[in-house]
Specification:
The chain is α/β, with parallel strands linked by helices and 446 residues long. It is built from 18 helices and 12 strands.
Amino acid sequence: MADNVIRLPRPRSARSPADALGLFVRVGRNDHKELLHIVAAGEKSIFGFVIDAHYATRHRDLIAEAKKREFDLILDPRTQPLALPGGYKSNLAELPWAGEGPHTLRDFDGEEGRQKAVAIVDYAIAHGFTQMLGPTHVLRGANDQWLRRDIEMMGRMSAAIRARKTDLDLIYSLAVPMEVLRNPAERGALIHALADAPMDALWLKVENFGDDASGEKTAAFIDAMRDFHQLKVPIVADHVGGLPALAALAFGAVGGIAHGVTMNQGFSASRWRRPPKEDGEEDADVTADEEGKKKKKGMATWRVYLSTLDVLLKKADAEKFLSVSTRVRGKHSCKDTNCCPHGQKDMIERPARHAIYQRAREVDWLSKTPQGLRAAQFVDERVRRVSDDVAAAAALAGLAEPVQKALAKKQVAMSRFRQVMAHLVTETRADSVAISPPRRSVRRAS
């Protein structure tokens, strides 16, 4: 009789929190109000919030409320931009470990390096963080001198955490170019070096990889990530959004993803490498403008997420697209009343909440899909549908020129992405699956 029993998937309420894939949100300057609402509304699929050190005071209410509700609060000490000429800016210079100019290797030597480690740990404790990214730097390759110095600093950070007798988790933030990740020798050297670094998790920021990555580049990223599994720590793809991020989760390459609210869904250090401009222009990733206020040069605003097309559009462009016809509006406007009670109106007027809520549902869907079926179902039920919907949308008459161009480009990219992902399903190495980051509640219970 037992052989005739059909075993249904466990209901969500019966699943262990450790089964879930991780979703972390990078909090921009003015994202805290919308994220506070999401937290207060009972969102559970988000694991935590990454907050830049210079925004810790500004986001104190979000830190307090999220911590009370068992979310992780992850400090980004911003050492990566602080060591590059265009990244060292006035808003970062006030941090206790910033110094008077872009960091050099000597700034992390001996006692000075130890003092920086202590300062960062004390800052994290004082502001209520539960985890922190280590004080690492953007590397040019496995032979970059920063690599060994960063590993030494991770040891100093670990010692400072033990000395303070706190339960802060320490995350290694590895930032490398895509071409380095593609190179097996470089990749192997990085992994060998990282084996000496104390860490509770590994987060990867890969230059020139993000939500607009091609199918071929996404497949290369997935293949490269499998080599990092040997470190036996949770792995998170940082600054990655869209279908490439979901693909990395579906194929078991990473156990979690992290990105910003409709921005910071790809990573490039080119702005940080350029000398600062005399007009004081700030990076768009740290100057998100408030709704309704006059936009200043260099500032970025929230975009509207159309999940059916896997695109982020400016508000004006999204409104024009959805007004093309009632059929388009019915197909592509949000129908989830838990997300947008008033449909298109809420989707346009509250794009931050809509985007994060929908991404949470996408990750939640993957988490509830058995590991052995995730890749195939992701390609069939997500990639295929987006590809078909983009093709249909690109053929519509009456589209505004910017939207028409964006959809035409997306159509070509999606066709290729779909082909590569479908082929990748047949090659998936089921024996290599990334460890998912444990929720804060799980760590506290262990």
